[in-house]
Amino acid sequence: QVQLVESGGGLVQAGGSLRLSCAASGIIFRINNMGWYRQAPGKQRELVASVISGGTTNYADSVKGRFTISRDNAKNTVYLEMNSLKPEDTAVYYCHANVWSRGALGLEVWGQGTLVTVSS
User: Fold this and answer.
1) Residue 95 host element (H or E)
2) Calpha distance 78→19 (Å, rounded)
3) How far is CA 82 from the centre of its chain?
4) Which of 45, 75, 85, 100 has the largest CB neighbor count within 10 A?
């Protein structure tokens, strides 16, 4: 019913920047919150940043001051601007949304993931 399509991953040198995008489509009455998680090889998936419908944001300590999450409600899209990237930011980044859809007040939806590789 709801799909998330991510874009913007790639290879960048340390200190560089990347911008990830995630667009939601399908039967959507309201997106309650959207966010980005990441999973590095051999590690658990962790929250990077999230934004609720009212605009309040939350960041992992490791990315505060470097990453910025933003949301375009009209386009059902969330962005992650990543600056001053470090090799330890290398991971598969997953978009996540909690959506009010048909038959579900809080449907949890995940994107397919996009790889971000930061070289030293």
Assistant:
1) strand 91-101
2) 11
3) 11
4) 85
pLDDT tens column, 57-101? 999 999 999 999 999 999 999 999 999 999 999 999 999 999 999
User: Tokens representing 119?
Assistant: 């070289």
Long-range contacts of 36-42 (CB under 8 A, 24+ apart): 36/69, 36/78, 36/80, 36/93, 36/94, 36/95, 36/96, 37/93, 37/94, 37/96, 38/89, 38/91, 38/92, 38/93, 38/94, 38/116, 39/91, 39/92, 39/94, 39/113, 40/88, 40/90, 40/91, 40/92
